[in-house]
Design goal:
Bound molecules: pyridoxal-5'-phosphate
Shape of chain B: globular
Structural class of chain B: alpha/beta
Helix content of chain B: 40-55%
Structural class of chain A: alpha+beta
Oligomer: heterotetramer
Distance between the termini of chain A: 32 Å
Mean pLDDT of chain A: 90
Number of helices of chain B: 15
Number of strands of chain B: 12
Strand order of the largest sheet of chain A: 1-2-3
Strand content of chain B: 5-15%
Order of helices and strands of chain A: HEEEHHHH
Strand order of the largest sheet of chain B: 2-8-7-6-5-3-4
Largest interface: B-C, 75 and 75 residues
Number of helices of chain A: 5
Chain lengths: 144, 391, 391, 144
């Protein structure tokens, strides 16, 4: 299977943190069924701002599921502000690469995390630089 | 359990085809254009293969042009129809929205050469009617090309009727029969088509070899220029081993056609029985006029690539649409053409069987598909929404 | 004694190439475009073959495009150079009078699309100089194509110098290296060519598969439209067995290049020694820059076809010119291009050797050619006249 | 060897009547070295007008040699006037066919015979219909 790296296949076939958090205090959803990918991320952030738990639900291809899995692993146990520093590049690197046509999946993962963090900030009334949360658009298929 | 269920993408070379190729690969090494004995022996194999292929589709051997595959055959047929039309001042071509890319992309290229192209809609059934073609015809129409059987959904088109209509109108008619030949009866005389494309690797022949059938009297136009091979219409030293393998495979397929069809209908119906109970699934394309071994379904709330990769992990090789568009992000143009909504089209699965499959394998496919669909839906926010809306 | 001495027409598949192909024919049956394991395994073979071919000519694997043979590669290269030129408003193409028909006939087709073509003369030596090209260049020149080694007379052209000149002028340069690759060193980086054509069956690979090398940065233009194979530049399910066989054959040929060349020079020189004493014969093309295994001679007063058929009756397979023009009545355009008078050009014989030949065979060839030439002259009214004029 | 019929190959590899007749009383030569075929036919006609002996020399391809051989066999022992009735079609048939591109060889054989007969008539001062001996032109390569 040369299509995806072993890491991608591992995170696709054994995704980490899959599921929902009923009492999540930050939820983000990005993507569009018409484009073929939707990611939904649930955060449970404790009072110290640490992401105690994170789960995801994803509709999408193998790399979308693997990117979600990897992204959640990368932010779990981190401070919520640090989660904002997660880049799609870091996700791609952690997955040992993605095929060029699939890079947008990692972008989606980054955006899903950001969207969940924003939701958390909004719920808590924490102020933030709106510049950090640009409008999410689906660059891959031209729709949004 | 291993289940190869992607025979519409390509098939395994048959034993008979391999056995026919081996002596050519080892001993019949001459160039069929050479005058000496070694060359003329190669030529005899070439012409014997041509006769075998001709017989399989009820053509004359002079009507058989060997190509490097179905794509090349489609390209050459379309350019021939277009350029012959242009000579008579006609520049309008009719095709359908769900042709193979070998046809659609050639039509795109012809558009850049100032041809007008009308792609007629395909009904929800996945079948084009002669009325659809009639409605699209103009004074300027020089070529109609409609595939015989669709590669993704397996629906069979009324080629004979369309060919008859085109003949009346004096319009060239080509059919891409790549998915049909070797799978359902194909008789070029009975069909009355002008040109017809074949690809060997779809019926257990080798990859990289095909045929363009061209009815006597139509002056085929070259797309590969050079030597005088194929009566000056297709240059290049012949892929003799491939051609001989194709001839063996097509003969075998035609010989066993009835039995294979019966077997495949049985296997496919077993699949349908086992899968149709899955919530919110649909079978794409009417089963009324349909290839025996192809089944295309959509499962709402999931995406096709993850479905097929998880099936692959269970030993099942299937496809989500056609092989050459995989890797692309767009949902199948075929499913969109028959009116499947985009978000549902993403969740497609094509199972394409061959006579080498068996009923135990079908049970494994049924169990696996159910399991994987259930799992993917359990992690799908789209499915969650669908269920929420249901309540 | 059997002597296959028509290796410029085609070669016997090597054992290594066959061994590489067999597992592909039996087990690696997937479509490289399929996402499942069976397909991806096929894709691995495809990409491994691409790397092997790239290594053999010192290219990057991204610069390798698989085609159905040398003719297709030539066609695609020429159309690419022409159309890219046309985009910049340039429509003049330079080539030579002794190219293969895959080049010459494509140029004829391009002429009909309003391209100007200059075919430069070839010197008596069978070599084109960079001066010849320089003299033909105009402001409008977009493409130069000169073959690396001529298929009939075996002369080698100064490709590196011509490529350098074209680069200076900003003109695309293509070389048909079908007769060169596997026979003499070919290093695309060192040569500095933009495009280069290869055909597997000329170096003990299978028939019906070839390569177009395209330097990075040149946007290749498709001539077969369809699926996204070959990075969207050449549609059609890949002839995987053929491609893998070609990769094995090219690797083997390059590995043994020096030894083979040495052996072939020896065999060819033995032929020359044995044949040059025949009255009124000539060697066509200078031997200075020359393929090791090719020898082209003319014998006055006789006609080539009878010569080669009588040699065939003695077990010797040779050619009178190139394979694809046999059957035609015209004398070789190559011999005419290097100034051989028409009546003498009719009496040509091409002996093209491979490393599988041996010195005993050469002796048989020498004896047989002498015998047959003497016989045919004894019944030739042309020879009678020549002798009469001598007196 | 499917290129030529067995008959052609037989007459090519074992041509009948090959050679010259020193005391021929009718000689015809047609064709052109530039076109790749020349046929020369020698007739020895006796006082009864019977072709007692006939020989040929040919420069040309296998079918040219075979056609010469067959044509000479077909007229040997016949009356000189009968030789004029030999058609290229009859030669082709007797050879069990020729490939389409080689039909001109049989035409050349017919013309060579005619030319030799004409030469005989001329030498003997026999009158004949000039219409029977049209200008020989090499239709195959456009030269003459
Ligand atoms: C110089 C040259 N170019 C092109 C070709 C065409 O190659 P192919 O027969 O593989 O199409 C040949 C041989 O046939 C050749 O000798
Ligand atoms: C309907 C149809 N047409 C054309 C083709 C192209 O054939 P090939 O891959 O042999 O070029 C295919 C399969 O790939 C096909 O399914």
């Amino acid at each position: 299977m040369a299509l995806y790296s072993e890491k991608v296949m591992d995170h696709f076939t054994n995704p980490r943190n899959v599921g929902k958090i009923e009492d999540a205090n930050g939820i983000g959803e990005v993507g569009n069924a018409r484009c073929g990918d939707i990611m939904k991320i649930y955060l449970k952030v404790n009072d110290d701002g640490i992401i105690e738990d994170v789960k995801f639900n994803t509709f999408g291809c193998a790399s979308a599921i693997a990117s979600s899995s990897m992204a959640t692993e990368m932010i779990k146990g981190r401070h919520i502000d640090e989660a904002l520093e997660l880049t799609n590049k870091a996700v791609v690197e952690a997955l040992d690469g993605l095929p060029p046509v699939k890079i947008h999946c990692s972008v989606l993962a980054e955006e899903a995390v950001k969207s969940a963090v924003k939701d958390y900030y909004d719920r808590k009334g924490i102020e933030y630089d709106t510049e950090l949360f640009k409008e999410v658009s689906c660059s891959s298929c031209g729709e949004h | 359990m291993q289940v190869y269920a992607d025979n519409a993408a390509t098939t395994k070379l048959s034993k008979k085809a391999l056995d026919a190729m081996l002596p050519v690969l080892t001993d019949i090494y001459g160039n069929p254009s050479s005058l000496h004995t070694v060359g003329q022996t190669a030529k005899e194999y070439l012409e014997k293969a041509r006769e075998d292929v001709a017989r399989a589709i009820n053509a004359d051997s002079k009507e058989i042009y060997f190509t490097s595959g179905g794509s090349e055959a489609d390209n050459q047929a379309l350019r021939t129809g277009a350029y012959l039309g242009a000579k008579k001042g006609k520049r309008h071509i009719i095709s359908t929205k769900f042709e193979h890319h070998a046809v659609l992309h050639t039509l795109d290229a012809l558009k850049k050469e100032a041809f007008d192209v009308t792609l007629v809609d395909v009904h929800e059934t996945g079948v084009v009617t002669v009325e659809d073609i009639r409605n699209a015809v103009t004074e300027d129409t020089c070529l109609v090309t409609v595939m015989m059987a669709n590669n993704e959904i397996g629906t069979i088109q009324p080629i004979k009727e369309i060919a008859e209509f085109c003949k009346e109108k004096g319009i060239y008619f080509h059919t891409d029969a790549v998915q049909a030949v070797g799978h359902i009866p194909v008789d070029v005389k009975d069909l009355g088509v002008d040109m017809l494309s074949i690809s060997a690797h779809k019926f257990h022949g080798p990859k990289g070899v095909g045929v363009l059938y061209v009815r006597k009297g139509i002056p085929l136009i070259s797309i590969i220029e050079g030597g005088a091979q194929e009566r000056g219409k297709r240059a290049g030293t012949e892929n003799l081993a491939g051609i001989v393998g194709m001839a063996a495979a097509i003969s075998e397929a035609v010989e066993n056609l009835e039995n294979n069809m019966k077997k495949l209908y049985g296997l496919r119906d077993a699949l349908i029985d086992g899968l149709k109970g899955i919530e919110r699934c649909r079978i794409n394309g009417s089963l009324e006029h349909h290839l025996p071994g192809t089944l295309n379904m959509c499962f709402e709330g999931i995406e096709g690539e993850s479905l097929l990769l998880l099936l692959d992990a269970k030993g099942i090789n299937a496809s989500s649409g056609s092989a050459c568009t995989s890797g692309s992000l767009d949902p199948s143009h075929v499913l969109l053409a028959i009116g499947v909504p985009v978000e549902i089209a993403h969740g497609s699965l094509r199972l394409s069987l061959s006579e080498e499959n068996n009923i135990e394998q079908m049970q494994h496919v049924i169990n696996s598909v159910k399991e994987v669909v259930t799992y993917l839906r359990s992690i799908s926010p789209v499915w969650e929404k669908i269920k929420a809306e249901e309540e």
